[in-house]
Amino acid sequence: MDIGKRLSLVDWQKLSEDLDNVGYAVLPALLARSHCEMVRDLFDEADLFRSRIVMERYNFGQGEYKYFNYPLPDAVSELRTLIYPHLVPVANRWHAAMKIGSRFPERHAEFISRCHSAGQRRPTPLMLRYTSGGYCCLHQDLYGEHVFPLQVVLLLSEPDRDFTGGEFMLVEHDTKRTPRAELVPLKQGDAVVFAVNSRPVPSERGHYRVVMRHGVSRLHAGDRNTLGIIFHDAT
């Protein structure tokens, strides 16, 4: 899919600024339509996944998602490995601003080794599928002691062609202000990078933390498929 070439065209300075300012940034057209369809078809290959979650059973929303097993499919592994180093400078800067002691290595393999040494050995990349009426409640994807503070969601379906409704939502809980909600417009092949747990916000005394949660609004019609790239593994 030549992800490396597409990533080389990204304005990472602007992405970094967007993350600092609002807690998310969009990578437009990261995957071509044909590649979206190829990745989307992985959802039906049961042997690729370690678990399947029907969201209604746990009051998570309405829909289903599946966590990949190791070894990850090549396309998923490549996305995870190649995006990670571009986000490390932001992650380390955020941890410094929030006075969190841990820092992240440049290579994803080194970070995963750290996770595995701490007992976080289960892969976390996942695929999600919603049909008409489906939605996802606001949540965070943490999974253990070692948490990379940014994650990525790629939209594999085309709005207004494959589905209507189903907007990606972010809600920011700020102790100094009223909570702020935002809908992030995405097209097929776009990726959104966003804060997993919290992000730093500047203040007169330095920085303070605001808590971020994400979800999906209710689908009015059609099918919505996404790929989630989480960079830490789970216990």
Order of helices and strands: HHEHEEEHHEEEEEEEEEEE
Strand content: 25-35%
Task: Supply the CATH architecture.
Answer: Sandwich
CATH superfamily grouping: q2cbj1_9rhob like domain
Summarize the structure.
The protein has helices at residues 3-8, 12-22, 33-40, 74-97, 108-117, and strands spanning 24-27, 49-54, 61-62, 64-68, 126-130, 135-139, 150-155, 163-165, 168-173, 180-184, 191-195, 198-203, 206-216, 219-222, 224-230. It has 235 residues and is of the alpha+beta class. The protein is globular, with a radius of gyration of 17 Å.
Any key phrases for this structure?
Jelly Rolls; 6-stranded antiparallel sheet; alpha+beta; 5 helices; 25% helix
Structural account:
This protein is α+β, with helices and mostly antiparallel strands. It has a single domain (3-230), classed as Jelly Rolls. It has five helices and 15 strands.
List the helices and strands and how they pair.
Layout: H1 3-8, H2 12-22, E1 24-27, H3 33-40, E2 49-54, E3 61-62, E4 64-68, H4 74-97, H5 108-117, E5 126-130, E6 135-139, E7 150-155, E8 163-165, E9 168-173, E10 180-184, E11 191-195, E12 198-203, E13 206-216, E14 219-222, E15 224-230
Antiparallel strand pairs: 1-11, 2-4, 3-6, 4-5, 5-15, 6-13, 7-11, 7-15, 8-14, 9-10, 9-13, 12-13
